[in-house]
């Protein structure tokens, strides 16, 4: 008997998995139709012991016909369940057949000859039978649970089943609350490839509690392949009641509005990242043509760079030179010792009369272990250019402490900018010492270890660019040493000609008259980058938090409207960042302005 039961169960599983075979509709004369049937009504004609049947007027062929067993009508469960919208599925884990009707969960256990209805048991043979390996259900029993009406015509040996799919009400008397209704539409019927989709939310809550949660499936800001896309919305009210899912189909034509590459450049706001894969980055942005520029070195302010040894391992003089007039002091150092030290800049009057030092701008960051952070924040401070008028007068032959940082601990670093003017020759010494005083000038001069240090006659460059008429994406390269040459200088401690690799401490001023409509982006090609850039007076942080690399994509720095009189960009290479970086100028047209 157990073997027979298993074979019957196997036959039932196979039957439930078989698809119902449909045939082409017959002629009007061949079809039997109910004129009262509507879109919300299902009308089924079944013939006793015949495979032919009609579903809403369309002839179909069944793999199990209706039959009479002990004077009771049995109908094919799978076919009728599908026709009336009732779930009929085989659960392989429990080896049971699961049926769901409005308000009822039914499980048929063939092995144990049991039927469970919302947890209550009844005998299998009272409601179901297995005929030729197919599950058959007693029509009177099924009709009651489905809310269907049926009529048996003995002369025609035909069963007529009529089921009205009555919509469920929104109000639940048990909770005295209603389910919300999800509904939406589109601003227009058809959209182009890459065209922003405007979703019009029409959802509501009958209790006027408002919609608390939205869940979309298939929703995108734009689509980049033609086709029809089903989009579904489900909503919840503030009491946790869930709506029925609501689905609409969106049609995307073959006409292109914006490509997948163009879309984020047009649509994302300033400050946003454009995430892209390496293939797209390489093929569209890596080797763009250069925007023509006229570069001018601006003399008049001498730059002292103390950036080596960038990480010092003993006390001493990091860099020293004599200058007068307009000067910029730049220092970037990390404490590589195993003890707390102070960093200071000493100023010694090299003349026989008092010398006044006037500080007009500064960028300074207290000691920190985050090299990228201190480089970025010092540059932000300097580019802000807040009004500053600090003066110091040094008697003839005397040494004063021009600047001293709080003590910094092992692995901490400092980054400093100062613009100043002197009315006489002054020796500036960048020192690292436990005790800061004139005696520190007797400390040894630390040996060169490969980083940048020197005195440079140029601390500012100007680039004039034509950004008014270019039509293809273009770029400016910063910090590569070729298209943007590193400025020459001299290191008196080594008595050697040097170059300012990276042009640290140099201010770039980029100017364009009447720029066209465009997006300006940055691509960190050299590695990790963090720093500010000033565009038409506004500071842009790159990025807002953390660091970026080329693998992160690009950041949008600004967008012009085409109506500005000029474009002015101010930049200084932040300490701790890698170069080169590309400024990308991407021309925009009026497509977005034409949107409804």
TrEMBL record:
Which InterPro entries does the record match to this protein? Cu_amine_oxidase-like_N, Ig-like_fold, Mao_N_sf, PKD_dom_sf
* UniProt superkingdom: Bacteria
| Alphabetized UniProt keyword annotations | Signal
Q: Which N-terminal stretch is annotated as signal sequence? A: 1-28
Membrane-spanning regions, if any? Answer: none
Among its keywords, does the record have Amino-acid biosynthesis?
A: no
Provide the protein name: Copper amine oxidase-like N-terminal domain-containing protein
Source species of the chain: Paenibacillus mucilaginosus 3016
